[in-house]
Amino acid sequence: MNVDLLAHPAEEVAPKLLGCVLTCTTSEGTVSIAITETEAYSGTADPASHAYRGRTARNATMFGPAGHLYVYRSHGLHWCANVVTGTDGIASGVLVRAGRVVEGEDLARRRRGERVETPRLARGPGNVGQALGITAEHNGADLLTGTSVTLSEGEPVPGALIRVGPRVGVSKAHDWEHRFYLAGDPTVSAYRLSPRAEPPAGS
Question: Which domain of life does the UniProt lineage start with (predicted)?
Answer without folding.
Answer: Bacteria
